[in-house]
Design a protein that fits this description.
CATH architecture: 3-Layer(aba) Sandwich
Number of domains: 1
Helix content: 25-40%
CATH topology: Rossmann fold
Order of helices and strands: EHHHEHHEHEHEHEH
Strand content: 15-25%
Number of helices: 9
CATH superfamily: Isochorismatase-like
Largest sheet: 6 strands, parallel
Shape: globular
Distance between the termini: 18 Å
Length: 200
């Protein structure tokens, strides 16, 4: 697939304080989030390029209700540490996009409480409203929220591009395997410079 400017959006997945700041809730819950920080500067570069080229920017945020009644098995059974450390709760700074990537007034923010952006009906409604057919993904984490969103995008026939140097994971091996899996069947794996050249 070929990168292009027309009918394209940049999708910035979950670049939130919880995941990308050392005192974030996910870090407090015991996860080695330092591995995610490598995505910050490349995401900044992509957002800058998108703004300069008039490409729509969609931010997703992982958000739970205060009582975690929407947390499901992930919070109750798989990762109860999130609840124990008040991570990703609505109305707290933990859910905010990091200051370095602060959304502009015309950017779009989609909240979700599951890994895939498509779990929020508002996400696909937005894609259709903007007549988007091509999605460029960056953010965290490679094998969870990025891959889940990319898989769903592909199965709904959106042309998807994963920017490998602008996504990150807690574990390097999972990062590598996720990129291989997405590149085999669900997306084209590209680099920041490829996107910048296509949008310049």
């Amino acid at each position: 697939m070929k990168l292009q400017r027309e009918n394209t959006a940049l999708v910035v997945i979950d670049m939130q304080n919880s995941f990308c700041k050392i005192d974030g809730g996910t870090g407090r819950a015991g996860f080695p989030i330092e591995g995610l920080f490598s995505a910050i500067n490349p995401c900044i570069e992509l957002v800058k390029s998108a703004r300069q080229s008039g490409i729509p920017i969609i931010y997703t945020r992982y958000v739970y209700k205060k009582d975690y009644s929407d947390g499901g098995i992930l919070v109750e059974d798989l990762i109860p540490e999130l609840k124990a450390h008040n991570a990703l709760v609505e109305g707290t700074s933990d859910i905010d996009v990091i200051d370095e990537l602060k959304p502009a007034t015309n950017d779009i923010i989609i909240d979700k409480n599951r890994p895939s952006a498509f779990y929020s009906p508002e996400f696909e409604e937005t894609l259709k409203k903007l007549n988007l057919t091509n999605l460029v993904f960056c953010g965290v984490t490679t094998n969870c929220c990025v891959e889940s969103s990319v898989r769903d995008a592909s199965q709904k026939d959106y042309k998807s591009f994963v920017v490998e140097d602008a996504v990150a994971e807690l574990d390097p091996q999972r990062h590598s395997v996720a990129l291989q899996t997405m590149g085999m069947l669900f997306a084209s794996v590209v680099k920041v410079k490829d996107v910048q050249e296509a949008w310049s």
